Amino acid sequence: MTACKLCVLPFSLLAFAVAQTPSTKEVASVYPEAHTLYLDLHQNPELSMHETQTAAKLAAQLRSAGYEVTEHVGGTGIVAILRNGSGPTIMLRTELDALPVEEKTGLPYASKVHAKDDSGADVPVMHACGHDLHMAALMGTAEIMARSKNSWHGTLMLIGQPAEETLSGAEAMLRDGLFTRFPKPDVAVALHVGNAQPAGMVAITPGIYNTNADSIRITIYGKGGHGSMPHRTVDPIVIAARTVLALQTIVSREVKPGEMAVVTVGYLHAGTKNNIIPDEAEMGLTVRTYKQDVRKQVLAAIERIVKAEAVAAGAPREPQVEHYEGTNAVYNNPALAERLRAPLEAVLGKNNVVIAPPVNPSEDFSVYVEQGIPGFYFGLGGADPEKFAQAKGAGTMLPSGHSSLFAPDVEPALRTGITAEVAVLRDLLNMSPEELQRLTSPAQSK
Ligand SMILES: [Zn+2]
Ligand SMILES: [Zn+2]
User: Fold this and answer.
1) Residue among 373, 234, 227, 366 at smallest CA distance from 290
2) How open is the CA angle 365-369-373, to the nearest 5 degrees?
3) Alpha-carbon distance 259 to 89, whole Å?
4) Cys-Cys with 211: which of 101, 288, 334, 398 at CB 3.0–4.6 Å?
């Protein structure tokens, strides 16, 4: 009897471990359909909050794969649920939207689509951020997870989020009851393809993944008059010019050296004619930071400097400082990131999983994390490995996301995306409540 136990136990443990790691065969079985979907989505991109056909295609495929699908969540968003007994609820998110960019890749499947934007202007449309690849990966993953319910337990929640590019879709889904009409997940997962790594690789960034972004509009009030009689005016252009220079001292003199902070004055508008001193001047700023305390410090310094420069010049009115747009940095729970590295390394190879520093672009996945849901947002290599090596050798860089030339190496990137997502989801959907709790407790996420 003892002998029998000894031979059965290792075998069952082995079988369990093998079942959790997505096999090449499993990925191959869903790949042709995922690739076809990619080509279709790439040639039919839709702008933010107009992703009706995109959402309908995903909803139909998810329904036929056995998911309970709800459409029109927060506009064009979709939520697909697959219940598989008791266990954790894990969310995987893809974006649905494309960008007003004219594709210049020259690829046989390049987008030729034009559409009306929200102002009514005719604009070219392209999946220049790779959200088409995210959707195709999610569909491949959805199929594998639905066909292998013996390899996991719990609830799988797949969401198609509209309007990531305008940083408004996550909020819209939340306001429409994403976590009240549907289960609130224990962990939220997403990936983003890019040219920072070659296809076949993934990148993990524990802790802060990207920047807080803040958009500020400043109006400086002066007293206009004749250009020949400045003594009877308060010149807002001179105040604005001094303000622009003083703002440069925030990063160089106030923020601790080594902390990430950017203060860019992107425009400065004032005046109409050379011999008229205008009444006011307006400028627009973008502010990027990694840490919340640095963000607070920089925003307060901007306000202080803008107001003080106006006082110094004897301005008749205090300047207006408007914060009109902003999003928080995405935070990757470090313990979770460390834990999920293992299944990724197991399936992709140790050398194909790298730890990467934070990136500058912002993203509204942070909205989910701020609901108290531990997040795992990782990078998916998209560059053609050969072109990547050439560019590296030449000291140049391949076109990044949002470029009209952005062209991921679809086949290896998509296969890796599906493989990585299944590995991560299966690992999470096999955790006990205690294990998940221990990994994602606030003490672990600092
Ligand atoms: Zn983008
Ligand atoms: Zn994107």
Assistant:
1) 366
2) 135
3) 36
4) 288
Q: Which two tokens stand for residue 130?
A: 């790779």
Ligand 2 centre distance from Cα of residue 381 (Å):
13
Residue (of 361, 365, 362, 344) closest to 353 by Cα position:
344
Identify the band that residue 439 occupies on the pLDDT scale cut at 50, 70 and 90. Answer: confident
In what helix (H) or strand (E) does residue 243 lie, and over which residues does it extend? helix 236-249
DSSP for residue 99: B
Predicted pLDDT at 14: 44
Tally Cβ neighbours within 10 Å of residue 135: 27
Please name the residue that has the structure tokens 């902070």.
Answer: 261
Cβ contacts of residue 142 below 8 Å, gap of 6+?
61, 62, 65, 67, 80, 82, 158
Q: Kindly give the pairing relationship between strand 187-198 and strand 89-95.
A: parallel
Cα(429) to centroid(ligand 2), Å: 26
- What is the Å distance from ligand 1's center to 38 Cα? 17
> What distance in Å separates the CA atoms of residue 417 and residue 191, rounded to the nearest whole number?
8
User: Using CA atoms in the order 39, 44, 50, 55, what is the torsion angle rounded to 10 degrees?
Assistant: -40
> What is the whole-number distance in angstroms between the Cα of residue 103 and the centre of ligand 1?
14
Rounded to 10°, the helix 52-64/24-43 angle is 150
Handedness of CA 390, 396, 401, 402 (dihedral sign): negative
Q: Give 265's strand partners.
A: 285
Q: Are 413 and 133 in contact (CB under 8 A)?
A: yes
Closest CA to 99 of 111, 108, 90: 111
Say how far apart CA 332 and CA 322 lie, in whole Å.
30
Span of 8-12, 26-30, 144-148, 407-411 with lowest mean pLDDT: 8-12
What residues contact 336, with CB distance under 8 A and at least 6 apart? 187, 374, 375, 376, 439, 440, 444
Q: pLDDT band for position 229 (50/70/90)?
A: very high
- Cα of 401 vs centre of ligand 1, distance in Å, is 7
Enter the tokens of residue 115: 């559409």
Give the ligand whose atoms come closest to the C-alpha of residue 330: 2
10 Å CB burial of residue 149 (0-12, 13-18, 19+) is middle
Point out the ligand nearest to the CA of residue 134: 2
Nearest to residue 84, comparing CAs of 155, 10, 165?
155
Write the DSSP symbol of residue 253.
Answer: I
- Mean pLDDT estimate for the chain: 93
Site of tokens 């599906």: 418
